[in-house]
Amino acid sequence: MKYFHQPVLLEEVIEYLNPKANQNFIDCTIGGGGHARAILEKIKPNGKLLGLDRDPKAIAATGENLKIYKNRLILINDSYKNIQEIIYGNKIDLQFNGILLDLGLSSAQISAEDERGFSFQADQPLDMRFGPDGSLTAAEILNKWPEQKLLEIFKNYGEEPRARMAAQKIVKQRAVKEFTTTLDLVELMDEVYGGGRGKLNPATKVFQALRIAVNNELENLSAALPKLLQILSRGGRMAVISYHSLEDRIVKHWFQDLTKDCICPKNFPECRCDHRQQADILTKKSIQPASAEIKANPRSRSARLRVMQKI
Ligand SMILES: C[S@@+](CC[C@H](N)C(=O)[O-])C[C@H]1O[C@@H](n2cnc3c(N)ncnc32)[C@H](O)[C@@H]1O
């Protein structure tokens, strides 16, 4: 399979992470290796990059794309949430000066060739797992989960305004015929929206919700951020690109907490937490792609970059 992905906010990521000769980096979501390649160039001649991806296809493609860097590139097919086990299990003895998380999906995963049902534009099996390490599929959620749980994920993970109607219709529909392919769901969401939904495909939000639920994306992100901070060297930087408000909110609030000396509830008369400032935020507001980038790569339009520096 041809693996293609245009890295988003590439110049900005490099400017903020500021990789220098012989430093080491972690790319937690290496995808097609676009950001990784730029970092590897900057950390020449001896800097190493640990590249992770939950998707074995991404790891295989990047191994091929970046083979000229093979002596400085460690590629591992695993989730970034297991970063500590990955580092200790593989006896990786490096100081890391920078960490990148570029969340979401690659263009290759959305393409018709992928066949995991990430895209509503091709008729594919309703799988949506980033990697074979997960067992839950989108079909299982649609065919087995109770209506209330469907409603919750559509509301909480998809911010889908017609979540209730969608959940009700799914439960009715599956009693007649189970959901097997993306087209089954696309047709149902067309019914939910009758006359269409402006520029947005009616299925956009429920696809997002299902993908987040299948891959446990928000929990993984929340659990991984503190582990990654521990691994980052003092003075090292962490950059996160998110593609929807749910992810961005997690990153923003976590970054904000890191800058505080106390995170006790406001009504506590005195500080009872041992929290101390651990980082400075380098991006006061999130960085968004310039209009030229959005024009050249429309998929970048929802990207938000936040960067912090460990103190
Ligand atoms: C937007 S793409 C990254 C693109 C990459 N920066 C590039 O330049 O090609 C996001 C990648 O994150 C991977 N991913 C999603 N969840 C993950 C997780 N928990 N651990 C590791 N990789 C994950 C996906 O498989 C996908 O390849």
Tags for this entry?
311 residues; alpha/beta; Rossmann fold; DNA polymerase, domain 1
Order of SSEs: HEHEHEHEHHHHHHHEHEHE
Number of DSSP-assigned strands: 7
Ligand catalogue: S-adenosylmethionine
The overall pLDDT average reads: 95
Structural class computed from helices and strand pairing: alpha/beta
What helical percentage do the residues reach? 40-55%
* Main sheet specs: 7 strands, mixed
Morphology: globular
**How many structural domains?**
2
CATH architecture of the largest domain: 3-Layer(aba) Sandwich
Number of helices: 13
Q: Reading side by side through the largest sheet, how are the strands ordered?
A: 3-2-1-4-5-7-6
CATH topology of the largest domain: Rossmann fold
Describe the structure.
This protein has 2 domains: 10-108 and 217-310, Rossmann fold; 114-215, Putative methyltransferase TM0872, insert domain (DNA polymerase, domain 1, Orthogonal Bundle). The protein has helices spanning 10-17, 34-42, 56-65, 83-89, 107-110, 138-144, 147-156, 163-176, 182-193, 204-215, 217-231, 245-258, 291-296; strands at 25-27, 49-53, 73-77, 96-102, 232-242, 279-281, 304-310. By secondary structure, it is of the alpha/beta class. It has 13 helices and 7 strands. It is globular. The mean pLDDT is 95. The longest helix has 15 residues, at 217-231. It has a 7-stranded mixed sheet, sandwiched between helices. Helices cover 41% and strands 13% of the residues. Bound molecules: S-adenosylmethionine. S-adenosylmethionine (SAM) binds next to α2 and β2.
